[in-house]
Amino acid sequence: MTEGTSEKRKYKCTVAYDGTNYAGFQHQQNALSIQEAIEKALYKLHQTPVKIFGSGRTDAGVHARGQVFHFESELAIQESNWTRAINALLSPDIRIQHTEKVDLDFHARHDVLKKEYRYFLHLSRTEDPFKRLYQYRVSYDLDFAAMLEAARLFLGEHDFTAFCSKRTTVRSRIRTIYRLDLEKHGDKLVLICEGNGFLFNMVRIITGTLIAVGRKRLSYAQVKQALETLDRSLVGPTAPPHGLFLWKVSYPEDKKLLSL
Fold first, then answer.
1. What are phi and psi of 81, to 5 degrees?
2. How far is CA 126 from CA 138, 175, 197, in A?
3. pLDDT at 258
4. How many structural domains comprise the chain?
5. How is 179-200 classified by DSSP, letter by letter?
6. Cβ distance 178 to 151 under 8 Å?
7. Is there a domain that residue 229 lies in?
8. Which of 28, 58, 149, 234 is most buried, by the most CB atoms less than 10 A from its CB?
9. Parallel/antiparallel/unpaired status of strands 53-54 and 136-138
10. Residues 154, 180: contact at Cβ < 8 Å?
């Protein structure tokens, strides 16, 4: 679906995906990733390789409502047609939500201001087949007040060494959490976490720790100690990936979007 060629343009795409059947967002050597699937679709449009750059990784099995990536193209496809053109070549479990032209100096990862993740828990004694891929079922009672109290410990700037995977390779483990809320809606409990960046498995480990607090297997004091001592052995397990969604990625206001 080409409408001629022109000068190089850069596009910012917001994409939603069901991560169940993928090895995460970023390229993997021996498994299909979201990035690979999108780049294959762009190859079909361009008849040449096109690399996309995401706002960050999501793990295998993690979903997204608002992942962001950018790519460059010389195809003169109308801005309003890009979303339809790419989606026509993607599996139904990956869908571009919006495509916009941006300045050539825009970068989907480097320009991120903050991200919001949401983790969904299903509070039920029995499994619901319609929720099992998108909510982590918790079949025991939770002390919601204790979880809320412990959640406040994570607010602000901290070294999150105790709350990331051993496979984390970045040097600095210091991140800032702007918001960490728990919202209960019937049998659904949603953890909403917003920060300036996240380490490998960080949201899932925070979630597993708060569940352990809710089950009275960890105390407020132990969570506080883990943050202060950076001791991973003091925190809870890593919650499974299927309850986690990358909900929204925000950028500074000065990164104004352009129109064709």
1. -95, -15
2. 9, 37, 35
3. 45
4. 2
5. EEEEEEETTEEEEEEEES---T
6. no
7. yes
8. 58
9. unpaired
10. yes
Q: What is the dihedral of CA 214, 217, 220, 225, to 10 degrees?
A: -140
Residue 154 resides in a domain: yes
pLDDT tens-digit map of 70-115: 999 999 898 889 999 999 999 999 999 999 999 999 999 999 999 9
Over residues 201-250, the pLDDT tens digits come to 999 999 999 999 999 999 999 999 999 999 999 999 999 999 999 999 99
Cross-strand partners of 100: 12
Residue type, 203: V
Q: Which residues are identified as catalytic? A: 59
**Residue 54 confidence class, pLDDT cut points 50, 70, 90:** very high
Q: Which residues pair with 182 in a beta bridge?
A: 191
Residue of 68, 33, 70 lying closest to 51 (CA atoms): 70
Residue 99 near residue 259 (C-beta atoms within 8 A): no
259 assigned to some structural domain: no
Query: Which residues form the domain of 75?
Result: 5-111
**Helices and strands of the chain, counted as H and E runs:** 5, 11
* Gyration radius from the chain CA atoms: 20
Instruction: For residue range 174-200, list pLDDT tens digits in order.
Output: 999 999 999 999 999 999 999 999 999
Query: Interhelix angle for 202-214 vs 220-229, to 10°?
Result: 150
- Look up the pTM and report it: 0.93
The dihedrals phi and psi of 214, each to the nearest 5 degrees, come to -60, -30
